[in-house]
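[Archive record]
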Amino acid sequence: MRRDEWWPNLRLQAEDQHGLITAAQGRLAGATRRQLADLIEQGTLTRLQHGIYQLTGTPSDEWTGVRTAWLALAPERSAPERLAAPDPEGVVSHRSAAQLLGLGDLDADRIEFVASTRRRPRNPDVVVHQAQVRSGDWIVEHGLPVTTPVVTVAALADSGVDREHLAVVARDAVWRRDVPVTSLAAALDRCAAGYGFDDGTALIDELIALAGVPQSSIDLAAHATGGDRARSSPPAGPGRFRAMIADPP
């Protein structure tokens, strides 16, 4: 097949994927291996990793590496197709999800995903955890499927992240992502014992205490849940703050 018969559509597909395409997508469009190699030699495409290419000149950002790894998990399917499905065949998770969502300050030396089926990525810096992925477990952020803040916090707790780092992630989920504290408490029930607590409510109170509650947030919660009544009550520590935003009058 001549280049002008497949390249326009393949280029459009790349533009829908932040300038990225896969070798498998190229072959499905009608390109041969030789034709794709010619595009690399001509400087039209830049090889990022095995089977993944970028339109030369397309700007990269801090998430290009994650997008590259995600496309490689299901290289024949387009990004829009996967994002429209209940299961996108790989969801950014754990530490990588925390970074993508802007939660906490955890280092992520590997790119982590969760997938419903077992996958063995070629890239040694990519880890795929196997677990059931439900449609309500993920959202789209920066063009990527990522576990919700609640699922992210729970996954990090399950993986044994230290209490201090988990505290900042949980706090940011509440302050930056408007996650109800009660939702975090329920999600943390199953791993509370591992941190020495009876339930998720006790654990989340401890995490908020560790991370610190901004006074502005306490004042805002007090105003939203009773004004004078809240101000006349005892000082709003973590447990009181959780109660105010969980159980408005």
User: Anything to note?
Assistant: The chain has 13 helices and eight strands. The CA atoms of residues 136 and 148 lie 8 Å apart. Residues 64-147 form one domain. Confidence is low (pLDDT under 50) at residues 227-237, 244-249.
